């Protein structure tokens, strides 16, 4: 059962003394999440592939909030780099309490136009990379650890053709999350997944050529913001009795 949660504030949440790793944290939802967790008191590591300057801007913004931060180059398509991000976070910031699996790629197009290289790339980043990063993070987490994965509204509802590969990769994360919840629950570690709908980012701007159609598919008739997604992530980072759950932050896309 999917739960829709509109977490506007998280005054009950405190992450003081915690360390968070946000993959793909140089822009969009990842950057907003890194800043929100820092406002809640966490020190933050962000990974990037090509956006070094953007990642360093996030680091400076986190430091301006009085928290420690580090930018780590790590390509989740590379098995060693995906797994190594957790270890590097511990080395840089002294621990790891919260993992946000945000890094992902989207390849959309007709089924008969997708090449094997497309399939391998999407599954390597969106599934294998998330699995390996979660595995490495869990090995370094104590009780109270949190694994939060960014899924997609398309894991719940594919509104048209062209999304088969992307939806496949994001749907796999639901099973991963539920499996992690069962396996790590006895250790006091939770795992949850957040499904954003259309969100206004530089990759999918609310004034882009396909935006009107995407907005029309939501019950609210608009794009969401990265901050709205980050608010739910922050809630889950501080929630003790929530695990194995799906949270739709999609404006009613799946309604």
From TrEMBL:
<dbReference type="InterPro" id="IPR036291">
    <property type="entry name" value="NAD(P)-bd_dom_sf"/>
</dbReference>
<keyword id="KW-0560">Oxidoreductase</keyword>
<dbReference type="Pfam" id="PF13561">
    <property type="entry name" value="adh_short_C2"/>
</dbReference>
<dbReference type="InterPro" id="IPR057326">
    <property type="entry name" value="KR_dom"/>
</dbReference>
<protein>
    <submittedName>
        <fullName>Oxidoreductase</fullName>
    </submittedName>
</protein>
<dbReference type="GO" id="GO:0016491">
    <property type="term" value="F:oxidoreductase activity"/>
</dbReference>
<comment type="similarity">
    <text>Belongs to the short-chain dehydrogenases/reductases (SDR) family.</text>
</comment>
<dbReference type="InterPro" id="IPR002347">
    <property type="entry name" value="SDR_fam"/>
</dbReference>
<feature type="domain" description="Ketoreductase">
    <location>
        <begin position="18"/>
        <end position="240"/>
    </location>
</feature>
């Amino acid at each position: 059962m999917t739960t829709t949660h509109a977490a506007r504030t998280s005054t009950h949440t405190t992450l003081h003394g915690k360390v968070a790793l946000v993959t793909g944290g140089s822009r969009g939802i990842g950057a907003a999440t890194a800043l929100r967790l820092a406002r809640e008191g966490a020190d933050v590591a962000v990974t990037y592939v090509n956006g070094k300057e953007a990642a360093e801007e996030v680091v400076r913004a986190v430091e301006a909030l009085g928290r420690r931060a580090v930018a780590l180059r790590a390509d989740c398509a590379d098995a060693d780099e995906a797994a190594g991000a957790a270890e590097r976070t511990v080395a840089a910031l002294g621990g790891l309490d919260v993992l946000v699996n945000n890094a992902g790629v989207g390849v959309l197009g007709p089924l008969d136009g997708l090449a094997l290289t497309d399939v391998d790339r999407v599954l390597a980043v969106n599934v294998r990379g998330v699995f390996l990063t979660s595995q490495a993070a869990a090995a370094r987490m104590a009780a109270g650890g949190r694994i939060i994965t960014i899924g997609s509204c398309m894991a719940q509802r594919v509104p048209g053709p062209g999304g088969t590969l992307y939806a496949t990769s994001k749907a796999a994360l639901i099973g991963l999350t539920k499996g992690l919840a069962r396996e790590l629950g006895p250790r006091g570690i939770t795992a949850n997944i957040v499904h954003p709908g259309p969100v206004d980012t530089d990759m999918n701007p609310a004034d882009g050529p396909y935006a009107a159609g995407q907005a029309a598919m939501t019950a609210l008739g608009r794009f969401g913001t990265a901050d709205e997604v980050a608010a739910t992530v922050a809630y889950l980072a501080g929630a003790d009795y929530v695990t194995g759950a799906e949270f739709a932050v999609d404006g009613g896309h799946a309604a």
